[in-house]
Amino acid sequence: MDQLEIAAINNCRETNKTNFHTINNEKGFSLLELVVVITIIGALLVIAVEKLLTVQVSAEQVAMQQVLGSLKSAMSLNIAAHIADQNIKGLVDAENTNPMDWLSEKPDNYIGTLNEPDPTDIKGFNWYYDTYSQTLVYRVSNQEYFKTSLNGAARARFKVKLDYTDSNANGLYEKDIDEITGLQLISLNPYEWTNEALTTHDYEN
Asked: What three-state secondary structure class fits 193?
């Protein structure tokens, strides 16, 4: 074998080694790319889920406020009608009644009147009137984003109360002393919608 053939063989070997290392490097780089892509996709999914939850919570909050707005508008019309007819007794009788009865068309998520139900048995995103406590209750769906002083299932409670001039500041309506000015739909317990999910510490506080 002459020098030229030996040189050709050695050159071929070197070329094969180079190609082998190049292929291995390309395979390693492709694996790294795959890990980076998976990491990026995972991060994007987390962000997307958080955004979706935020949208859902906002939608529920807006829907709840819309119902309360409709109830207060209907209540105003009810008050005006009673005052126009000089039917003050009708306003007194309206205290503690079901405000949903003022609406000509009730919300689709109003499930009717119930007698002291267990709130945990009520599906979230629903309204009901508790005949025992004479309160209108909204059962919260996204309860991780709803803070209230109430224990148990997340909910907001509302009650129809007389609006009157408490002349002797005793907190009681007295027919011959106090003047009725209307009705009000009050929240019985403070509540707050939050931007972040609540923790156990939040519930304890």
From this structure: strand
